[in-house]
Give the backbone structure.
Amino acid sequence: MGDVTGFLKLARADPAKRPVAERLADWREFTRPMAETALEEQGARCMDCGVPFCQGDTGCPVQNVIPDWNDLVFRGRWREALDALHATNNFPEFTGRLCPAPCETACVLGIIDRPVSIRAIEQAIVDRGFAEGWIMPRPPARETGARIAVVGSGPAGLAAAQQLRRMGHAVTVFERDDRVGGLLRYGIPDFKMEKSVLDRRVDQMAAEGVVFRTGVAVGTDIAGRALRESFDAVILATGAPVARELAVPGRTLDGIYPAMTFLAAQNRVTADGAPTPISAHGKDVVIIGGGDTGSDCLGTSHRQGARSVAQFELLPEPPGARAPHTPWPLWPMQLRTSHAHEEGGRREWSVATTGFTGTDGRVTHLHGVRLAWNGRESAPVAGSEFTMPCDLVLLAMGFTGAESDACVALDVPLTPRSVASASPDGVTPVPGVFAAGDVRRGASLIVWAIREGRDAASSVSRYLASRG
Amino acid sequence: MSSFPDPMTPPDAQGMYDPRDEHDACGMGFVAHIKGQRSHGVISRALALLDNLAHRGAEGCDPCTGDGSGVLIQLPHYFMARAFGDRRVALGEPGTYGIGMVFLPQAESARTTAERLIERIATEEGLRTLGWRDVPVDETAPGETALRTLPFVRQIALAAADGPTLLHGRALERRLYIVRRRVEQAARAASLSGVYMPSCSTRTLIYKGMLKPEQLPRFYPDLVDPDLASALALVHSRFSTNTFPAWPLAHPYRMICHNGEINTLRGNLVWTRVREECAASGLFGDDLARLFPVVADGQSDSACFDNVLEFMVAGGVPLVQAVMMMIPEAWDNDKRMDPDRRAFYEYQSAAMEPWDGPAAIAFTDGVRIGATLDRNGLRPARYAVTHDDLVILSSEAGALPLRADDVRTKGRLAPGRMLLVDTAKGRIVDDEELKAEVVGRRPYAEWVATGRTTLADLPAPVTTPAPLDLAAEYRTFGYTAEERRVVLAPMGASGEEPIGSMGNDTPLAVLADRPPLLFRYFKQLFAQVTNPAIDPIREELVMSLAVTLGRRRNVLDDGGGPLPQIRLARPLLDDDELARIVALGDTGPHRVVRLPMHWSAAGGGPALAAALDELCTRAADAVRAGATLLVLSDRGSDDALAPIPSLLATGAVHHHLLRERIRSEASLLVETGEAREVAHVALLVGYGASAVNPYLALATVSVGADDPAAARAHYLKAVAKGLLKILSKMGISTVQSYCGAQIFESVGLARDVIARYFTGTAARLGGVGLDVIAAETLARRDAVTDGEYAYRALGEHHAWNPRTIAALQRAARDGDATTYDEFADAANADSAAHTLRGLLEFVPTTPVPLDEVESAAAIVRRFSTGAMSFGSLGKEAHETLAAAMNRIGGRSNTGEGGEDRARFGTERMSAIKQVASGRFGVTTEYLVNARELQIKIAQGAKPGEGGQLPGHKVDETIAATRFATPGVSLISPPPHHDIYSIEDLKQLIFDLKNVNPAAAISVKLVAEAGVGTVAAGVAKAHADRIVIAGESGGTGASPLSSIKYAGVPWEMGLAEAHQTLVLNGLRTRVRLETDGQLKTGRDVVIAALLGAEEFGFSTAPLIAVGCVMMRKCHLNTCPVGIATQDPVLRAKFTGTPEQIINYFFLVAEDARRIMAALGVRTFDELIGRTDLVHQRTDSSHPKANTLDLAPLLHRPAVDGPRYCVVGQEHGLHDATVLDHVLLERARPALEHGEAVRCSFPVGTANRALGAMLSGEIARRHGHDGLPDDTIRVELAGSVGQSFGAFAARGLTLTLRGEANDYVGKGLSGGRLIVKPPRGVRFIPEDTILIGNTALYGATAGEAYIHGVAGERFAVRNSGASAVVEGVGDHGCEYMTGGTVVVLGRTGRNFAAGMSGGIAVVYDDDNTFADRCNQALVSLERLDDGDDRTRITALVQMHADLTGSGRARQLLRRWTTALPRFVKVIPREYKQVLLRRSGQTEAARG
């Protein structure tokens, strides 16, 4: 398959990024598409492993058949590559842009060289599919007559809905927000994925016959019992949006927001042009939390015109390369520098926030201390206390679990980890009710949400079959 | 020891043992007086000859009991008249009475019953019992085991009831044959055990038994009676693989002795039954049906052959013709053969398929005695004719010592040739004359021309089939994208079979996660030890894929004129070809009927069963209505009308027609979308299809091809090549013999499915029934996911997957028990649903404290790493394995490919030195630097196949360790050319043991049905250790069909070997080792419980040092630097010995914990304790419960230890080992380099002469040895096999006499001179002097042979120089270096596979080019340069050392002689030489 010595002859290439100045001036995606020939060359680096770890349990959660489509791209057989890609992944355009790509950190080539540019290839395959008009609605050949409700329109809900609709079931997606997409719509900044990418997929689904009902919150606007009575099965896919809190003095001051509030606000601006109530423009911004959400806040702040941005992380700075305790093919503990970090701001590690102070109810200062880490234990470093001025604080410290409303409405118990109780393939203790995505798994990757949506759809299918 | 109920037969099938797997081989010979003068001297000479062949036979667990020996003589009238006269029985004139030699039960009542039975049948056949005679026997002669089953031996005299005038001579002989056959059947029907008639004839008499050669005349005093006279005597000494030698199994049989093995037996037996359907002979009258079955169940291959030959001869087929029909020469590809003879063979092929396999057969009807070799000529047969008219033929030259001046001529049988002594005519009839007489009896050429149709003769079809909707067909037949890409695409593109690496780690079909094709439930059988595989590429001349379609002919009468036959070049049809046949319709001589293979999917298993019944009925009806060709077709299948699995349909129809006894009327063709892999076609043919049209595979390779027709042709070519390989790995030469031969075992099909549709196939563990087969056929429609060849997350299960690999690497790096447990838990959990061992669970027992259990340090000594060559692995990886194993006292294995001398004596030296078929780097020095020498008979990934290392991979280092030329390809032959049989293996073991007496000798086998009996044979050949490898193993390149379809898991092979060895008392002599995907302590313990002392690991330690199962070993692109020679990639290797040591200790500790839980303190106590496990009932695998693992866990009811406690007696201290004396004499040379000289007389019992001394030279002085001629040994006589084997530099052996096979095997610098005795009266230059396979694997040294050598002279020579007067077939085969000068004629196929070195042949009559295989070599004149100088020097040396007349003559007129020399030089080698000399020039310039 492919070029057997491609990996020896060719270096890894990634999509080029637009110049920082240029990309900070708009909200468009920060990368430039790679040339087709360059991508075909990158496909040739794939070694067609006997055991492709990109597919393994530490690799791609949707089990993308990566070596197969790498080879097809190498051979210029893009349309077949698209089919192979869609066979396991409903939304490669999302994962191609947004996934941290555990496939690449598990890539065997990564042992001796930089891994194959799997994500770039994935994105290119699907973007080309849309550009060429290969991606058409695929309505089912026949209707089964079964009715399925999907609660929540994030990646898990969408994936479940599309799978079930294509099996011929009547599928209605309930979304409490005004638009479909969940986190994809309001959590992800446009510079990572423009919303047209989401819209075109939602349009395809609508054309396939999925019914979307927005502005309907289950448990509030429609009772769980009513839902279960009017549908043969219900899939709960409401995510895990409860943000981790920072319980320190001064937390209630104005100017301190959960990251999602900040990011959603900007997404509404980008979509509708309405002014944002929380702009970083001209402000000194502190982002607490060093993960992906923090990075999104960073990029957004810069685009809004922040005067300065600092990002604090509780944990120590990870090593520049893979940490020894996370050897290949595990997801590596290592320093990650995102495109947003290239755009400015400063990052600090081993910093704990001890409180905020402000005037007139608005935050003006952050108080912190540096930590010394010893293994998993940390202790404040004596004399390292500091205070810094700030007027916008964004809390991006992760998420603690699902909201209870919809779960309660559907009688699905929550586990001690605050997620819906269900088996890995989405079966809850309530007959006919299934759960998929972050609501079951806890906050995780989009790619996992898609996988869970697909698995839950299979479970629903089995459930329907078992009822005869 | 248990005693067996029937002294005449081996024990019943039990556990994994099945008596039908027994094999034998041996030594044989005859003495005959050409003029038919009867004398006792002929018999006594034959017995002396037999005695000298004793070393070719075997003894069992009881050293006093042989496997059997016997003698056939002419019915000695004078002696018989006297002996019966003593009992007042008058016999009458010779030819009017017959004598039956009878083995009877000892118990008097049973004996009387048997005698009455014989008399009654004789009466019914119009005979009268003249009387009985107790044959005197000496019960002190046989061994203990033989005595336990001692028969009561009597002779019965029979004559015509109504007077000798009416029934005598041939007619009486035929009647006696019928009596004997009816006695056999009646005894069987009456369950009368212990009745057997060795002979019953007016002409011949046989004395035989479970005796060693020297015991035979002691047991039967008749044999030493001077009155016992005969003009001919045929003798045989038997070596069976098994130690259930029974009295009747000794040779001779009634007409033959056989040395070898009938590989095609299963097919021959099927077609023998078919032949009964249409057999008719006026000579038998109405008696014919009473003789059926011609071959009764449960006999040895030789006995079956004898039965059929006897039937044909009794039925009127002339003896020589019958032998020619059963063992035809390789005529198909021999365009130079006389056209009449070719026509004869072609005509007879419609009645008889070849009985194929390595065979030297001696046959006699009491008047004529002859011998023939099969087309491959792999058994030796040498003969001498004396001035006093005796012919002595034997497996060894010199077995009957003769005075030099007594000998008129000497010769050897060449492949496919026959020799006959006609005592009635009083002369020897040679091959040409014999055969010319037979083929001249009828106008065969005319008949063949009239009757035969070829595809080209048929009109092109008018209509073409509608194009296929591929997507729908793929769904119907469950094609996956992976199959199309990995399997079919390469076949269509290049005509080659696809190649893979690293063996098979997917489950057996019955434990697969995905629905497998029915084909997957079958595994190919292959030759190991008892018979050699063939090289279908380099020895293509013996192979044939041709098949004949149409009705079969009466085997007893070939007077019927032309027979309508369609002849196909191969059992494959493209769409057009099939259409031509179908267009013949159902009128005319060929009547074609097409039968759909469909069933109603909705009905599941019951509907499938019903559809099969209907198909069978329709097939039988069609045949009864006159059809001669049935086309089973699954065209037009869809979702509702599913295709019946084509193999199921084929097997069902084939066996139904057999049972209905109308199989001979029609041929089966299979038109199927299902078959796509080579193995699928092989299975269809193996279960009775004459040809297959794989239409969907053909359509698939056409898609997207630039030239679709070429792609289809490529695909069919690849299938044909693959078929040849599959045939040849069983040692079968023609597809005609393979058809219906069922050379498969099934794993995972229910016994009733096998009994009904695949009758007779081994299926030892049961499995799934028709319901599951039906369900899986349908389920494959949705099986779009792949993952059979490479892991896929949603595909088939692989034992090595991202989880297990990553966990093992972490554990090996950290040496941490917790991480290891993660690995072991994952691996064991995988195993629980996917392997046989996983289906076993431990029986709860009282545990013992862990600290009382044998230490891990002791257990790891039982571990070894697999045979992975330097060449397949990079230097770093190879040395890392060696260092790790040496540090823990385990053993690493060089693999096939030598070892860098710099590693000898260091930590990096491999303890196990492998000796494989290529003998690369196998020098004497290599052999002495070893703790173990392993003879690799087969390897798990591709048993029975050779290999090739392409020239571009042979770099300087590899070339140096393999004694090859950089850039020149290296070919490993499929067989060891010094192991064509079990007695050959015994010889090689003896050779190696001589070279390195301290080393254990191990023999590596691969698990398959019957490996137990092979292992028993290997134990009897004195191996110290037997390795039973599972099918799953194997690094390096192998055809995918071999990886997936050959061999079975080690659990089956190990259990079979262990049980068989226990059953026959040999288990205590050998250690058993097993390998194949062993991973955890649990695996080790289960293997021990099933019978293993020791354990091999290959993949796991490689993973420990970084292997990630890329499966790219064959591409040299291993990214982690393990399986590659690329220095850039090798630099990426990061493995350390510590990682391997960590892993092995973790496994050992794991095993200890299990031992503690099982209450077992020492490892030896574990071995064979199958009572500690049972089959689990809770496997998560839905099909697991259909398996019955009880046969794996069977414990033969035998007392005593079940592991190695005794060891082997190698006979190294026997007086025949002359090297002890040589060592003594050579001491001054060894110690001080002083020249020594000595001389001795020798005989055939002096085998491997010089090997032990050479080992000592190499041990002290390395490969460089001593200066030439330091030790000079002069010998006189006929020396035994392996003369001068591994002779080291400094040793010169000069033999005046003659030599047998394997002269100069592995020659490592020594000098060998062989010349005929003084005073001979034949022309030495034209006379055979040394046997077959001389200089095999020689790396250095010289040989001067003043006479002709047998087949395969200088095979795989890589450095020796030799001069010889003439050679047999296949000279210089696979040669990679060195120089060979042939001063006379060569046989056929010279230089096949020769990739290096040069050969120079004196071609006086300009005919050499025809006999040379020029695939790799070109023929040139000797140039004026270095070559001419070298050749001149060699010929001069030859003349000086041997006194060769021809050499002297040539030298006298050297300038005129030189142009007649043809230089044979491999093209690739020449290029390399030119490049090098160019470089040298450049460097100089």
